[in-house]
C-alpha cells in the first residue's frame, strides 16, 4: 500500500536528506523532524496501526533502533504486543541470532527465543527499507521461532536498492507495505 497523497506529502515533507552520512555515497534519510512533529508522528502511527489491523497481526516486531520508535506506539494503538529485535548482545535472555548485510556494513540481530510462539501473526515494522537485509534477517528469526509473518511495514522504501526483491523469498507471499517509496 502506498499512503494517500496527503499523508505521503506530510510524511515526506518531514524527512530530511543528509548526503554522505554515515559514509560517502550514502544519502541518509533522517526521520527525526517527523518524530518531532506530533501531527505527522500521530498520522504515521495511525497508518501503521491500520496496517496491523488489516493484516490481522497480533504482535509487532520493531527493529532496533529506529524501528522501535515507530513500532512501540503502533503496538499500543493497535492493542497488540511489542517484540524487540535488537543488535547482538543487548538482550538478557536466551536468544535466536541472525547475521545480515547493511547498505553500509554488516551486523547481527537477535530476538528472545521465547518472544514468539507458533500461531502468533507478526508484523515487522521499521523506518527504512534499504537493501532489505535487516528485514530479511528478522523474517528468518520469526520463522525460526515458529510464528507466522503477517507482513513487513516500513515508512520509507528506497526502491533503487532493490530491498523488495531481496525480501520476496522470505515473505513467502506476505505483503511488504511501504507508505512511501522513493
Ligand atoms: O534494508 P537495510 O539495508 O537492512 O537497511 C535498513 C535498516 O538500516 C537502518 O538501521 P541501522 O542498522 O542503520 O540502525 P539504527 O536504526 O540503529 O540507526 C534502518 O533503520 C533499517 O533498520
Ligand atoms: N539511506 C538510508 N537512510 C536512512 N536509513 C537507512 N538505513 C539504511 N540505509 C539508510
Can you describe this structure?
It is an enzyme of class 2 (transferase). Belongs to the purine/pyrimidine phosphoribosyltransferase family. Homodimer. It is found in: Cytoplasm. The chain is α/β, with parallel strands linked by helices and 182 residues long. The chain has one domain (5-181): 3-Layer(aba) Sandwich (Rossmann fold), CATH 3.40.50. The protein has six helices and nine strands, in the order αββααβαββββαβαβ. It has a seven-stranded mixed sheet, with helices on both faces. A two-stranded antiparallel sheet has the order 1-2. The longest helix has 17 residues, at 38-54. 41% of the residues are buried. The mean pLDDT is 96. The structure holds 1-O-pyrophosphono-5-O-phosphono-alpha-D-ribofuranose and adenine. Residues 63-67, 102-103, 126-135, 163 line the site of 1-O-pyrophosphono-5-O-phosphono-alpha-D-ribofuranose.
Amino acid at each position: 500500500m502506498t499512503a494517500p497523497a496527503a499523508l505521503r506529502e506530510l510524511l515526506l515533507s518531514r524527512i530530511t536528506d543528509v548526503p554522505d552520512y554515515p559514509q560517502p555515497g550514502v544519502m541518509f534519510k533522517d526521520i527525526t523532524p517527523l518524530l518531532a512533529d506530533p501531527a505527522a508522528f500521530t498520522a504515521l502511527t495511525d497508518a501503521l496501526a491500520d496496517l496491523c489491523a488489516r493484516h490481522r497481526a497480533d504482535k509487532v516486531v520493531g527493529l532496533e533502533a529506529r524501528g522501535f520508535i515507530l513500532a512501540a506506539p503502533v503496538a499500543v494503538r493497535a492493542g497488540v504486543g511489542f517484540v524487540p529485535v535488537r543488535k547482538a548482545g543487548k538482550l538478557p535472555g536466551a536468544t535466536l541470532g541472525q547475521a545480515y548485510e547493511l547498505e553500509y556494513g554488516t551486523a547481527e540481530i537477535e530476538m528472545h527465543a521465547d518472544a514468539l510462539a507458533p500461531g502468533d501473526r507478526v508484523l515487522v515494522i521499521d523506518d527504512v527499507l534499504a537493501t532489505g537485509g535487516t528485514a530479511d534477517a528478522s523474517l528468518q528469526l520469526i520463522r525460526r521461532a515458529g510464528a507466522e509473518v503477517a507482513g513487513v511495514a516500513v515508512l520509507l522504501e528506497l526502491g533503487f536498492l532493490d530491498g523488495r526483491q531481496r525480501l520476496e523469498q522470505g515473505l513467502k507471499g506476505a505483503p511488504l507495505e511501504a507508505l512511501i517509496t522513493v
